[in-house]
Design brief:
Chain lengths: 315, 245
């Protein structure tokens, strides 16, 4: 018998390969079915009226945390409902009286199952039944809203319809003659205008011709004086740029003037104080009064003040 | 006409093989030898094929589904299911048509043109039971084993490639894979590999057993065996899919 360098007989090799393959197959199968590899899983049962594309392998959540998967779905003929076997792998305890909710898919998700825990302190035993409830999905909610919208739309359409009927009746009864009259008078006006135009056709024609002449003349004029017009435009441009500079300068000036005025207003600086401080005015006032007095006194008794002053020195 | 004649020869050979199933003592030793050659010695190449099939399929599926319209775990669903249903069986079948089929037809063809088969016959040996039967048995029984290895490693390769390339984490991949994992798919894959094992070994035995014309004849027989095996694998794949899915 042929032997390899490890001294394994052919039978041994084959046996090893086959056993390895079987083990791989079993483990792989259990992994793909989301069942625990070695220990026996914990099973719960529930029933739903309809399972809405729930599949074996769909996820079981508690508060969004995955704790297991759907192991199998069976149709029960007598009860006319679906018996769903849940395979629990998580360690979250599930109280007695918890409900199993069928959660419909969001737009691109898959159907899943959520266990809503009750407040009972007693925990469920494995292989027992939980109550199953279903919940509305996004699309179902939308379609329900859609019904309401459709109803509203129907009402709106009815209103629109009745309005149209009213308009129709008003057109065809009382106001019919009036509308007719209006239209005929419009027609008459149109005819008059037409007549007028045909009568004055010659005048209008000549007017158009003379206008065209004027335009032509103007054209010629501008053509002839093109250079002058150009220079005019250039000088205008220059002037406008000058104007711009000027306005900039003016702007600056205004700004600084503003500044000054503000300062004056605030009362800083001589001018400010002069304007805002009344004491200066009163001082000046009293000064001028005193001066007045002084002049009067001098006029009365000039010797008293000019005693020691010679006339030459004063004038 | 030639094709019909060949079909008759092929059927007759299979019938002879089937009739000598009871002669266990004749082919016992050869059987284990073939198990090792077909099964045990093919494991490395099958592992390689599996890993790369899964990895490449993951990258390319992610590339093709590169929109926000699908959740990422869809990649896992597609890869796992494709590997289980189709690729693990068919690609390993095609690879083994080269590896196993060529060896079988060359062996038997050489024995035929060097008149070893005639010698066996003249010694009173049942040459079909001695040479053909163990090879077909080995193919039929070992290919499912190789399929299991290839598909498992294909999924592992997909998970690793997806995680390493940042396409989707391993948990997401497995979530997708589980969502579309049906036990029937595995049965279907095993059935496929079973059929492919039979197709490859029986055609190779037939071509080798009836080889003629010296070294060139052996070469022709080997070429035909490999090409025909590939063609019939694809044909059988289509027929099985059409019937069973």
């Amino acid at each position: 018998m042929e032997t390899s360098k490890f001294n394994l007989s052919n039978e041994m090799k084959i046996g090893l390969v086959v056993i390895a393959a079987i083990i791989i197959a079993v483990i792989g199968f259990r992994i793909m079915r989301d069942q625990p590899i070695f220990r026996q899983s914990k099973i719960l049962y529930t029933t739903f009226d309809r399972v809405d594309a729930l599949l074996p392998g769909s996820v079981v959540h508690i508060k969004g945390l995955k704790i297991g998967s759907v192991k199998g779905i069976e149709y029960q003929v007598e009860a006319d409902n679906m018996l769903v076997t849940l395979n629990i792998t998580g360690t979250i305890p599930i109280p007695v009286g918890s409900k199993v909710k069928l959660v419909p898919p969001e737009v691109f998700g898959a159907v899943s199952v959520e266990i809503v825990r009750s407040n009972n302190s007693q925990m469920v035993e494995w292989e027992s039944f939980l109550e199953g409830v279903t919940e509305q999905g996004l699309i179902e909610k939308f379609s329900e809203k859609g019904d309401v919208i459709a109803d509203e739309l129907t009402i709106s359409l009815k209103n629109l319809n009745s309005m149209m009927v009213k308009i129709d009746s008003s057109l065809y009864s009382d106001n019919r003659d009036k509308i007719g009259n209006t239209l005929s008078s419009f027609e008459k006006t149109g005819k008059d205008v037409q007549e007028l135009i045909s009568k004055r056709k010659h005048d209008i024609d000549s007017m158009i011709v003379s206008m065209s002449n004027v335009a032509q003349n103007f054209d010629q004029l501008t053509e002839g004086n093109k250079a002058e017009v150009d220079s005019m435009i250039t000088s205008l441009k220059n002037a406008s740029s000058e104007l711009e500079k000027l306005s900039k300068g003016l702007n600056k000036t205004t700004l600084s003037l503003n500044d000054i005025l503000e300062k004056i207003n605030e009362g800083s600086g001589t001018l400010g104080k002069m304007i805002n401080d009344e004491s200066l005015y009163t001082n000046m006032d009293s000064l001028s009064f005193n001066l007045n007095e002084l002049v009067k006194n001098i006029q009365k008794d000039p010797k008293r003040y000019l005693k020691h002053m010679r006339l030459v020195e004063v004038f | 006409m030639e094709a019909l004649k060949q079909l008759g020869q092929y059927t007759l050979l299979l019938y002879q093989a089937l009739r000598s199933v009871t002669e266990f003592s004749t082919y016992r030793e050869n059987l284990f030898n073939e198990f090792v050659k077909v099964g045990y010695q093919s494991i490395p190449i099958i592992m390689l094929v599996g890993v790369f099939t899964g990895a490449v399929l993951t990258l390319q599926t992610a590339y093709q589904l590169d929109t926000d319209l699908y959740p990422a775990y869809i990649v896992g669903s597609i890869v796992a299911q494709s590997v289980i249903i189709e690729l693990a069986a068919v690609i390993s079948g095609l690879v083994l048509a080269g590896k196993v089929g060529a060896r079988i037809s060359t062996e038997l063809g050489t024995m035929r043109v060097s008149e070893q088969i005639d010698a066996l016959e003249s010694m009173g040996f049942n040459s079909v039971a001695f040479l053909v039967l163990p090879r077909i048995f080995a193919g039929v029984l070992m290919f499912p084993v190789l399929y299991i290895i290839a598909s498992t490693l294909g999924i592992i390769g997909g998970v690793v490639a997806g995680a390493a390339d940042g396409i989707l984490p391993a948990a997401e991949f497995m979530k997708g894979g589980r969502q579309f994992f049906f036990p029937e798919d595995v049965v279907f894959g095993i059935l496929k590999s079973f059929v492919f094992g039979f197709v490859i070994t029986s055609i190779s035995c037939f071509k080798g057993y009836f080889a003629f014309g010296g070294a060139e004849g052996v070469g022709n027989a080997t070429t035909q065996a490999t090409v025909l095996s590939c063609i019939y694998i694809l044909l059988a794949d289509f027929v099985l899919a059409a019937i069973l899915l």
